[in-house]
Amino acid sequence: MYKIIWVLLLSPLMGLAQQENTGSYKKRVLESTEVDILSSYYEQTGNNASVTGGIGTEKLTDVAPSIVVSIPLNDDDALTVDAGISTYTSASSSNLNPFDLTKSGSGVSGASGTSGVGGGDDDGFGDDNNNGGYSGVIGSPWLASSGASRQDTWGGITVAYAHSSDDRNQIWNANASFATEYDYTSFGFGGGITKLFNEKNTEVSVKGSVFLDTWLPRYPTELDSYLEAGNNLNSGFFNGVDILDSNGNVTDKNGPNTWRPIDGFSLISDKKRNSFALLVSFSQILGKNTQMSVFADVVNQQGWLSNPMQRVYFADVPNYFIGNPASISYYTSSQNTDAFMLADDIERLPDNRMKFPVGFRLNHYFNEVLTVRTYYRYYFDDWGLQSHTASVELPIKITQNFTLYPSYRYYTQNQIDYFAPFDTNLSTEQYYTSDFDLSAYDAHQVGFGISYTDIFTKFRTWHFGLKSIDLKYNNYQRSTGLKANYFGLGFKFVMD
């Protein structure tokens, strides 16, 4: 997100900065106030939810409107304010507390109120699976619960300032940002300098950023309740709730052969996550039609780098469940609608991570109709992850006002050293995760966009003229089965 903000800020400035001064006249870095109104819709499906230990629904929808205002302060300085929100509904996150449903002979109801799900065999909880006689607390990794974590709103704002020298051969910038959501807050700041040489055919940039983030941790219900009840399985949430073994037998909650989280489970002590990044880039115009650039980042993250919402299950520890014993035998199937496996622990990862991405861009202008933009990035870190990204975009100008943007992106990565799928990590390991974002996979993204540009801003509303409209669509598919669609719409206005 933050790199996008830098691009939005610097692209108009860099283009204007390459214009020479003529006599006593100095070209302004930004002629007038510009306003970008952006919105997007994102949806995904998948079957490897990390909140439920690497299996379960990943269905998610997200709506994200934002506004970016760029203001010229004088001939040399510009201020940009980027504010936005992102409202999502996540079936996976809802299962932080999957136990908010109970099964009764007449239907399904919430543990603290009516869920609104009707009774009968078509509700997904009836005799379809020969379990119509079960009554008690249920949950499933394959169904969204009605817990508070099922939806949230992220909100953030970034303020950036850029100053250009009189000869437009040097630009320095600074920014500050703040963002917050259900279980996380973030404060960031950074700055950089850009130098142009060789009659502005060569450009070198150095940028740095710092993010000081804090978890407001939320834990899986069974682990949180275990601590609240003082490790007493006959108190609090567990009072009157049967704990079943893998054969569906009710266990003795006072005996040794019942569920207990690994090492009694402990809350996270370091709630900070700090990130420090340094980016160096070099750009060169190779000819009147070709430009290339290379870049390298160094990123260091410190603090709690795991997600406390994400469950982990161990292969060398017996499995225990809450819900319908008849559903345990096909627990990993989406047919399971009323049994839930109790977590052994939460995801735990090292408290330090070094990241090293390096990349290359090559853009070539063939003619007034076709341009080719290519990109490649190689990434590696000290958690054992390596990845390759390659993409191509083909802007095709079909009229004076309309441009098409077909694109393709390929991504591949191996798994980190600490990843294992559902119920295959070992309790003897120091670090473990079943987050499939950290697994090995390939991904393909096909995109299409169309842009309308009116350089004369003929359409006007109030004191603003419409400069451009952009519409984008991306289809994304992973080899793990995750699929996603993205729709974006943007309007740029220029003040008179």
TrEMBL record:
Q: Give start-end of the signal peptide.
A: 1-19
A Pfam short name: DUF3570
Keywords in alphabetical order, please.
Answer: Signal
| Name recorded for this polypeptide | DUF3570 domain-containing protein
Q: Which organism is it from?
A: Flagellimonas lutimaris
